[in-house]
Amino acid sequence: MAIKRIAVNELHIGMYIQKLGGSWIQHPFVRSSFLLTDPNDIKRIKQAGIKELWIDDEKGELPETETVESPDSPQETIESTDADADPVQDKPHSDVKAKTDSTSIENEIERAKKLCQDAKPQIISMFNDIRLGKAIDPQTTLPLVGEINSLVQRNSAAILSVARLKTHDDYTYMHSVAVCALMLSLANQMGLDNEQTRLAGIGGLMHDLGKAVMPLEILNKPGKLSDAEYAVMKKHTLVGAKILEDSGAEAEVIDIALNHHEKINGTGYPNQLPAEKISLLARMAAICDVYDAVTSERSYKKPWEPANSIREMAKWDGHFDKQIFNAFVKSVGIYPIGSLVRLSSQRLAVVIETHPGSLLSPIVKVFFSIRSKAPIPIQIIDLAAKNCKERIEGPEEPRDWDFKSLDNLWL
């Protein structure tokens, strides 16, 4: 394969694009490599502000003019283009997280709420098109994935917490947004490169497309599925993968849709794959999918408290990749925003902000006395402060205290 670097003005129909320069968030395409056949694609590339790109002259035509080579490396190949990557994504995780300290959590929560509101119609439209048998274009989701990633980069706790809140009526649609955000946050925590992060985000957003053609009476059933109904529902992975394959989605995105219900111990579906056959991105998606499912309100169950969900999932031996799960815990926090916790002073509090460098000591809003079993004046405490003697003894379930809703304490 002969990879050549060219200026965007040299681009013409018949070239095979191997990589577009700049951050993937700028790109108007889901696929990173494709044969250029549509003149409108050239216009879209230029409108995105992309100045240069890499072509494969063995798969497509050569430029009509001299190729533009890097002055530092005349034989530069696709593997040596890290300097063109998104500077935020390429920073070590600790540096990225440090940036959130200067970002108002309240402002980020408002941004996250607006993004979720704006994303819902787009996801619903995509599901409806599939139900009607219309073809979908995965490329149309890339701007949304880019917006979600921007929020994750600024303050992942805000978007992850807001995306977790959904009613059972809009679960199917907003679950896609939540898993996308979780995948991007996890990819960032694991230090994946721009390309893998992009694929993780797209795969997370589209992992459950197969549910669009599942019978609504099964999809929305307010109770446990029968064995026969469960057998039908499990087909959503195969159907979703086929939909994505027909739409021209990348292999990694198809793989996420197909294998996000596979388990490390080989008991998952649809193919009971052994651990070594499950890809990295599918292993990540398995964790993100389950976490959002158990922490969300469903037609047949109440949501689990986030911190308790982490503890319970850690007990499921053979279900998840342990190393990836540990990274996931770091990405969402041991006590995510919105968690109800019991303090050493025997008071209850809600987590309102997390400290990436101190997972056990978030900022909390104290509001209830366990001893008197009554509300108390609200107090905000930074458990990571040097002079703070309070500590978290453990998570609590809101329903055990008959709390109807604690969201107004942090939203």
Structure notes:
The chain has 411 residues and is an alpha+beta fold. The chain has 3 domains: 3-85, no CATH class; 93-332, Orthogonal Bundle (Hypothetical protein af1432), CATH 1.10.3210; 340-409, no CATH class. The protein contains 14 helices and 9 strands. It has a 5-stranded antiparallel sheet with strand order 8-7-6-5-9, with no helix packed on it. A 4-stranded antiparallel sheet has the order 1-4-2-3, with no helix packed on it. Helix 7 (194-206) crosses helix 12 (280-294). The N and C termini lie far apart (52 Å). Residues 66-103 have low confidence and may be disordered.
Radius of gyration: 23 Å
- Average pLDDT across residues? 85
Known CATH architecture of the largest domain: Orthogonal Bundle
Tell me the helix content. 40-55%
GO molecular function: phosphoric diester hydrolase activity
Organism: Methylophaga sulfidovorans
Pfam family, one: DUF3391
Biased composition (Basic and acidic residues): 88-100
Set out the fold topology.
Blueprint: E1 3-7, E2 16-20, E3 34-35, H1 39-47, E4 52-56, H2 87-90, H3 93-99, H4 105-131, H5 142-164, H6 171-190, H7 194-206, H8 216-219, H9 227-233, H10 236-246, H11 251-259, H12 280-294, H13 306-314, H14 322-332, E5 340-343, E6 347-353, E7 363-369, E8 374-382, E9 392-395
Organism: Methylophaga sulfidovorans
GO molecular function, one term: phosphoric diester hydrolase activity
Protein name: HDIG domain-containing protein
